[in-house]
Amino acid sequence: MIVNEANLTAVFINLKTIFNKAFDKAPSTWEKTTMLVPSTSGQNDYAWLSNFPKMRKWLGDKVIKSLEAFKYTVVNDDFEATVEVDRNHIDDDQIGIYEPQAKDAGFSSAQLPDEIDADLKNDSFTTECFDGQYFYDNDHEVDGSSVSNVGTVALSAASNVAAAASYGVARLAIMTVTDDEGRPLGLIPNLLEVPPALEATGKLLVENPKLADDTPNPYHGTAELVVNPRLTSSTAWFLHVTNRPLKPFVYQLRKAPVFVQQVDMQADNVFLRKKFRFGAEARAAGGYGLWQMSWGSTGAG
After folding, report:
1. N or C: fewer beta carbons within 10 Å in the chain?
2. Are 167 and 155 in contact (CB under 8 A)?
3. How confident is the model at residue 71, as a pLDDT?
């Protein structure tokens, strides 16, 4: 193939098509626990998270709730995936060797939110959220009192006692959270997230009518199970509330992943190294939403 502008355009249009098809077909689970927040600048301020919205009876003047003096800002990061194309491969009609790389670039671009989401969860026991505490912590302040959304208990479906001491504790903690006026938030957890090592235990807890000791399972059907292979701990597990507009985690999107290319035959990398380039670019970030909507355990015991 003669390496000229017309042929280069055709080659890279084909690679872009392959990229986009792989992007569209890539599986994704981040939206189950994470809310999309558009971004129009280099960062977003999430001070508004300090005010959990809840209707109240209107008696007399309206009660105006101001934002707490929390400062929680999430700064967008740049992401990229780049592949070099040797000019000789175009010249020799060997462009097909780059199709798998174009597919993988599209696939990984589509899964960028899942990667960011998993990083949030892996770091959640040691990273601060909007109130200045770790996202999973034992001293979130609500109306002057400390409230916990963290544990160390191992997830267990061995018996009613073991299930109640792990999954049951998490479920109760979420369902009894109140606002700063002492009113129940009415949260009901509906999604159990575990690493692959806890898949069997999770299935027993929420999908099986009986526990491991063959006794009736009171938690059967109380939550959807999500097995997340990107979780780095083999013991940590999480219970989330995901059936409301607000969710426990934030995917902040400034610029969705797009296919980019460098095909100028006068560019230095082409002149000096006979290399063209293609890939993907994006701008995004992850952050923590409302801690009240999630409970996590390290599972360390």
Report:
1. C
2. yes
3. 61
